[in-house]
Structure formats: C-alpha cells, structure tokens
Amino acid sequence: MKNLTLLLLLLVAVNVQAQKESIQLKNALVVGQLDKAEDRYSVEINLTELLTEAGVKAIPSLNILKMGSDASIIATDSIQKLIAAKGIDTYILVSVRGYDKKFKKTHRKDELKTALDAGNLFPIYRDEVVSVSFEFMFYRNGQFIGTDIVKCGNVSSRDTVIKRFRKSVAKRIEKSWK
Fold first, then answer.
1. CB under 8 Å to 166, separation ≥6 — which residues?
2. What angle do CA 159, 165, 167 make, to 5 degrees?
3. d(CA 91, CA 73)
4. 78-124 pLDDT, tens digit each
5. How many CA atoms lie within 13 A of 53 on its CB side?
6. pLDDT at 168 over 70
7. Apex CA 7: angle with CA 6 and CA 9, to 5°?
8. Which of 3, 121, 124, 170 is in the most buried spot, having the most CB atoms within 10 Å?
9. Which helix (H) or strand (E) holds 100?
10. DSSP-based three-state secondary structure for 77
C-alpha cells in the first residue's frame, strides 16, 4: 500500500511539472484562424503586440500573406523559407474554440498543414454570449509542441472580448509561454 501511494504521488508530481513547463517562446508567427477579416486582424495584431511587449520577436501572418489569402499557404516550402529568413521558427495558430468555459486543451497533435487547413466556425463575439474560449496551437519547425486555451469571461461586446483577450493572454505569456 505504501508503494502504491508513493507511486501515485510520483505520477502526480511528474504530471504537475509537465503542465508547468513553458513553451519557451523566442519568436513567433501569429496566425489567426478566423473567418472575418476584422476578427483575424484584431487577434493577430493584439497577440503580436503582447508578445513583442514580453520580449518575443513576433510578426502577424498578415505581414506574410496577401489580404484574404488562405492560411494553409504558410505550410508551403517557399513561404516557410521566407519566414525562416526573418528569423521565425515558431508558429502560433489562434482560433475561437467556442463560447463555453468548460473546454479543455485538445489532445490532437495535427501536423502544421492539417492545422492550417482546419476551418473555424466561430466569430470572436456572438450576441447573448458571456464567455469566449480561444485555442492556441504552437508549432516549432513544423512540429507540434503544445496547445493552450484562454477563457475570456464576462463579455458583452466585441470590444470587451478584445479587452479581456489582451488581459488574459498577457498573463499567460508571462506565466507559461516564455
């Protein structure tokens, strides 16, 4: 019984330590996976500003892609070489996971191309919604390295979503992404 308890405590400690490990962002290309251009622009620019303020070299995908382009183009060799030439090896894909506080981190570990091809059904804000969950998927050198969810509660307009997004994500960057 003692050995079983000790083993259980050891497993819990390892699991807690694994969850506390940071993604160690040094640079990032921010890719907003949102259908509305204004939502994509808002999320990419705000996240890029937050990362830059935290000392992470970041650029939005809007600086790489033409307006209205499909984000899956980022997975092509020529675009990846262009991004690597700018000193970027990490990609952050941002999307709205849904409008509920109960979402958990995804266990999918899709390839970058598959993740970029995935569509997004949700806008940043919808009437009569009080919570928005954003999902962040991290890729380094084309390989999946982690995921995170940031929940923005008590929202009543698109502007409050952006305000809560900035506040919540700034804390997350300092706590577990750097």
1. 46, 50
2. 105
3. 13
4. 999 999 999 999 999 999 988 876 777 777 788 888 888 887 778 88
5. 13
6. yes
7. 65
8. 124
9. none
10. helix
